């Protein structure tokens, strides 16, 4: 009987030890699982932080692109507005006719009829002796010379103005760009027509 009790007690003890070992193993496994889960979550947090940084950079890039696009659209609208001109073909021909008549003049005293009221003739004398100069309110001036203007080289339209670029004779170092508007002239009784507002110097290299 005592032997059976000892045997039973030993079995119970072994069972308890076995359960304790199993519990310890399970606890270790749980701790490892928790550690693994914690590391996985940490990786996910790190990945999310990277994604947030990338998203933030993308937002900044998109904002910059949007600002650039707005600037480009504004520039394009200005160009479109400049092309929406009331100038028609007959206006262009009249403007060319003005410059063609101007370039044929051999007397400085007669060229004033081709210019707007804003043009000054500070060096003209009663005899029309030269050197003679044309002075413009917005650009400066040029020296007038007979037979200096040659052939039409280029033209463009800027709203209500027509720009005609003509080649010039030697030894003049620049082409002349005539800016014409429809305007009255030097004389008060003159009717509005296409007249020269200014003459710009354009490099012959263009």
Q: What does this entry look like structurally?
A:
This protein is an alpha+beta fold and 206 residues long. It contains 2 helices and 6 strands. The strands form 2 sheets. A 4-stranded antiparallel β-sheet has the order 3-4-5-6. The N and C termini lie far apart (125 Å). The model has no long low-confidence stretch (mean pLDDT 78).
Descriptors for this entry?
206 residues, alpha+beta, four-stranded antiparallel beta sheet, two-stranded antiparallel sheet, 6 strands, 24% strand
Question: In summary, what is this structure?
Answer:
The chain has helices at residues 2-83, 89-104; strands at 132-136, 140-144, 149-158, 161-168, 174-183, 193-203. The chain has 206 residues and is of the alpha+beta class.
Termini separation (Å)?
A: 125 Å
| Radius of gyration over C-alpha positions, nearest whole angstrom | 46 Å
Q: Residue ranges: pLDDT <50 for 5 or more in a row?
A: none
- General form: rod-shaped
Order of H and E elements: HHEEEEEE
How many individual helices?
A: 2
Range of helix content: 40-55%
Structural class: alpha+beta
Strand content range: 15-25%
Largest pleated sheet:
4 strands, antiparallel
Identify the strand order in the major beta sheet.
Answer: 3-4-5-6
Let me know the number of strands. Answer: 6
What does the average pLDDT come to?
78
